[in-house]
């Protein structure tokens, strides 16, 4: 039976990490074939973390606070001994069949290079969590163009062929990396295994801050990779909406009420279209009003993050010169 290394970058709270490691210990797979490589930016790891691993080998590696999540993952990979790498975030609870199912799919599907499982909501989900889960599961039991880095299974060979994670990207590193894997073969998203994102966004205020942070590497992640047509709106729309709203305001001040209303309509249109699409995906788990609120917060946050990332990149480049 194949050996598998679970590589987990970690910083901050331990309660979710303990639950993550506990779900690995509950997997339907021989423990002697597993290891957990924890790359932590915490100064120390508690005994509870080690106890959660049970009889699975746990290797703890210290990572400096300035390292990106990519760097931590790459450090863990260099120390991992398994033939297969399972990259997890430190707030993921896996289903008991996660490894056996994903590994079987990876080995039986000839052109598949990476497998990821579908997301399930927690026991008491908020409307926002229902929305996040619906977006995550928009495409199931099929090949996809890229995947978030919460739960990824691939061979050690594929990991190095894809060039590892990009050390310089603060966010969006998973989209960049999985796109590189996709150039080697298929990415498969399955409903046969599942996970719960314990740290999923629960409230819009917290999501707003996180989306600003997530958006800072939005454009940087496009370098050296092909951008499918379906992905372009995610870059254009968040920035276009506040731009059109500003135009509407300036036109109104200048007395061009007709043009102002037209700009306002163009700004609102993508929010309505995205909301209608998402409302179908949530399938009655939350209201249209909640969906509309989600995009009313998501797009401004992404715009701030994207613009901030551009300014930061320009400032860094200028400083470098």
TrEMBL record:
Q: What class of enzyme is it?
A: transferase
The alphabetical list of record keywords is: Cell membrane, Glycosyltransferase, Membrane, Transferase, Transmembrane, Transmembrane helix
**InterPro entries according to UniProt:** Glyco_trans_2-like (IPR001173), Nucleotide-diphossugar_trans (IPR029044)
- Look up the coiled coil feature and give its residue ranges: none
Q: What is its main location?
A: membrane
GO MF terms listed in the record are: glycosyltransferase activity
* Membrane-spanning segments: 232-253, 259-279
As for subcellular location, the record says: Cell membrane
| Glycosyltransferase 2-like domain boundaries | 5-110
What EC numbers are recorded for this enzyme?
2.4.-.-
Instruction: Report the protein name in the record.
Output: Glycosyltransferase
Q: What is the lineage of its organism?
A: Bacteria, Pseudomonadati, Pseudomonadota, Gammaproteobacteria, Alteromonadales
């Amino acid at each position: 039976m194949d050996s598998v290394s679970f590589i987990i970058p970690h910083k901050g709270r331990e309660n979710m990490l303990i639950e993550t490691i506990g779900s690995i210990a509950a997997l339907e797979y021989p423990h002697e074939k597993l290891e957990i490589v924890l790359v932590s930016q915490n100064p120390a790891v508690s005994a509870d973390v080690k106890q959660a691993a049970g009889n699975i080998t746990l290797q703890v590696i210290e990572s400096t606070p300035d390292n990106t999540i990519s760097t931590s993952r790459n450090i863990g990979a260099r120390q991992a001994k398994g033939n297969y790498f399972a990259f997890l975030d430190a707030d993921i609870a896996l289903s008991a069949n996660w490894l056996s199912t994903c590994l079987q799919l990876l080995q039986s599907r000839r052109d598949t290079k990476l497998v990821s499982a579908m997301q399930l909501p927690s026991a008491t989900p908020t409307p926002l969590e229902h929305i996040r889960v619906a977006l995550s599961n928009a495409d199931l039991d099929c090949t996809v163009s890229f995947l978030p880095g919460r739960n990824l299974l691939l061979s050690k060979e594929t990991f190095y062929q894809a060039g590892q994670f990009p050390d310089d990207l603060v966010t969006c590193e998973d989209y960049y990396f999985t796109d590189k894997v996709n150039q080697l073969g298929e990415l498969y998203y399955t409903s046969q295994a599942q996970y719960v994102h314990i740290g999923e966004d629960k409230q819009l205020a917290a999501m707003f801050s996180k989306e600003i942070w997530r958006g800072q590497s939005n454009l940087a992640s496009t370098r050296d990779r092909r951008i499918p047509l379906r992905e372009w709106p995610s870059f254009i729309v968040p920035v276009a909406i506040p731009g059109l709203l500003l135009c509407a305001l300036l036109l109104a001040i200048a007395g061009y009420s007709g043009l102002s209303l037209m700009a306002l309509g163009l700004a609102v249109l993508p929010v309505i279209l995205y909301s209608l699409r998402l409302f179908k995906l949530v399938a009655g788990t939350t209201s249209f009003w909640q969906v509309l609120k989600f995009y009313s917060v998501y797009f401004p946050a992404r715009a701030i993050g994207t613009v901030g990332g551009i300014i930061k990149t320009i400032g860094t480049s200028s400083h470098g010169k």
